């Protein structure tokens, strides 16, 4: 599955869009913030599965336990390709 299809299947796109902020930050903004960070994939994969708060605004992201570790890494790699 491509990153985008996986994001759709795991309902990430209910809260995120590629190019504009919705409930969560746009994936382009995430990619821009983490550009050049060698640990970006593990950091983001962990954030995807565990959720997070306080990094982007007042709304927290709930944990996503339906996402496997391999899928989280795949989603993180896809998001990082979206840097504008
Ligand atoms: C219920 C809404 C919601 C869903 C569903 C959701 N997110 Fe999020 N996401 C958020 C919010 C809100 C934030 C910002 C949290 C913060 O400020 O720390 C966020 C943050 C992120 C970040 C940035 C993490 C960081 O540390 O900077 C990534 C990457 C991300 N989400 C990916 C995903 C992926 C992939 C999925 C699907 C498996 C997903 N999100 C599902 C709302 C959501």
TrEMBL record:
The keyword Iron applies. Coiled coil: none annotated. It comes from the Bacteria. Binds 1 heme c group covalently per subunit. PROSITE patterns: CYTC. Pfam families: Cytochrom_C. This is C-type cytochrome. Residues 1-83 form the Cytochrome c domain. Heme c binds at residues 12, 16, 61. One of its GO terms (molecular function) is iron ion binding. It comes from Pigmentiphaga aceris. Keywords: Electron transport, Heme, Iron, Metal-binding, Transport.
